[in-house]
Design a protein that fits this description.
This is Tellurite resistance protein TerB. There is one protein chain. The chain has about 160 residues and is mostly helical. It has a domain of about 100 residues. About 60% of the residues lie in helices and about 5% in strands. The chain contains 7 helices and 2 strands. α5 packs antiparallel against α6. It is globular.
Length: about 160
């Protein structure tokens, strides 16, 4: 579990006061955690068979499955089969996977506490999406640094 260990190394801070409402609101607003659907990159290209509606629906399914991990793991193969049937390009899929992972990390640190369950969910999501560990660690570091800057205090690691 290399990525799990990387999470622990990033989040080694102890002793935190509880997140105040203003800081929590600011981080949620900054990261758009209240929005229902992730935005598609305008530069993203997809296969000719995928309409904008198909892409939007596929992205919603991706995010729902990622949000419901580990219980949703059996639905992962169907999601990827649908991506193949829609001829979604690997680069576009990778971008969507990174977005889903980033949103998962943001939700995990939005309350200033990173639980063991959140560690495991993020590591499972990374494995399912075949995101290289180095790339996932970079996403993690960037988001944790951003959250700590907004909160003015380190994120507490309970994992």
């Amino acid at each position: 579990m290399g990525f799990f260990n990387a999470l622990k190394r990033v989040l080694t801070h102890e002793g935190r006061k509880e997140a105040d409402d203003d800081a929590t609101r600011r981080i949620r607003d900054l990261w758009g955690l209240d929005e229902e659907e992730p935005g598609a990159s305008p530069s993203a290209t997809v296969g000719a068979d995928a309409s904008a509606y198909d892409r939007s629906q596929w992205q919603k399914r991706l995010q729902r499955i990622v949000d419901e991990l580990p219980e949703s793991r059996p639905r992962w193969a169907d999601l990827m089969q649908d991506a193949h049937a829609l001829h979604l390009e690997p680069a576009w899929l990778h971008e969507r996977h990174l977005e889903a992972l980033a949103l998962l990390v943001r939700r995990a640190v939005a309350d200033r506490v990173f639980s063991e369950q959140e560690h495991r969910r993020i590591d499972l999501a990374r494995d399912l999406m075949n995101i290289p560990e180095e790339e996932a660690v970079k996403v993690l570091h960037d988001i944790v640094a951003e959250a700590e800057a907004v909160f003015g205090a380190p994120i507490k690691d309970e994992g």
